[in-house]
Amino acid sequence: MGSSPVVLGFDFGGTKIATAVCDLTGNQLASATVSTDAGAGSARTAGGSARTAGGSARTAGGSAGTSGGSAGTSAVAPQRPGERGAHAIFDRGIRAARDLLAAAAPDDELAAVGAATFGIPFEDRVELAPAIDGWESLALGRELRAAFDGAEIRMATDAKAAATAEARWGSLQGCDPGVYLNLGTGLAAAIVTGGQVVTGANGAAGEIGYNLRAVADVGLSLNQRVHLEDMVSGQGLARRAAGNDAARPMTAADVFEAGPGNPELDELLTSFVTELAFHLVNLTICINPVRISVGGGMVRSWERIRPQLEQALSAGVPYPPELVVAQFAYDAPLLGAVALAVDAAQGRGEPDRAAQDTVPARASPVAGDAARDAAGTPDAGGAAVHIGKDTKYQSTMIQDTRV
pTM value? Predict the structure, then answer.
């Protein structure tokens, strides 16, 4: 193996950590996911190429993710029983990444690391990050620099990283302005204008999870009211479905699956999407976007969510935008983290136009996505993807993590 520089991307999520090793053009060499739940087992890996620029050519076999000791495979150590807390979760992700680097690029220099996270990342803390106890006090920037000495470090919120990927390679290319909406474990949005993601004065632009939910909330501090994200997010939906019944734990995916046959859950879903629509309409009126791109785990239930959102936008917005599923519906934060790392490695703060013209090759789909591909998944090649009832979900780099 040669000594070409590589970059590393992280997506630190509320339920999983995803990581990928890529070359300096963003082409993926290997990837892995590990759960933030210490009892969930070992990391899952994927490797090799999946799609060329434009998404028209898809390799089926012989990728680096196949067996036989190729570069795209990784033997990630199992999680250690009893690990708890933010530092243990962070360390688990670092171990997975180091194992991935050792397998995919053992002799290559690590030039840069890009990290996407829930919350607002800083060198010495992560603000607005309640999903994991202790994450707010984690010195994320310093910890990453210590773990990968000599590498350039770049960080962004998960929604902003996702919007970066969609603006550069996906459904928000050429959309000025555009909005990325993340419907996952948490809730957030990101605004794209002039091809760049708006960060805000404190890095918190688009943090709609903190929106007021009622007029009565006016004047109340953050700790005196219920945040929108507490009610409208994967975690919020699961809590609302379970209520106080600890013997009946449900994920958001469980709720969407059970909804059609359960009037109580169906009513909950209607209320859930209605409140989401209320805030999305107001955001849209403020921004006047060309397109809204929706990503995150809950888009697996897009046909339950889409009609209410479309109707609300059509009725309530003077100039309704196009509403689409993100090109990288589930792994956009990780791809955005890779984009940050590539920019850092190449010594630029802004993406160059040449890099925007090519979609990086990504890993072979895991089993669940392979089945969807066999059923005839369309290839969008950077265009917006409308997911109708007869349309299968597109293959993505790291998939099938339930919200």
Answer: 0.77
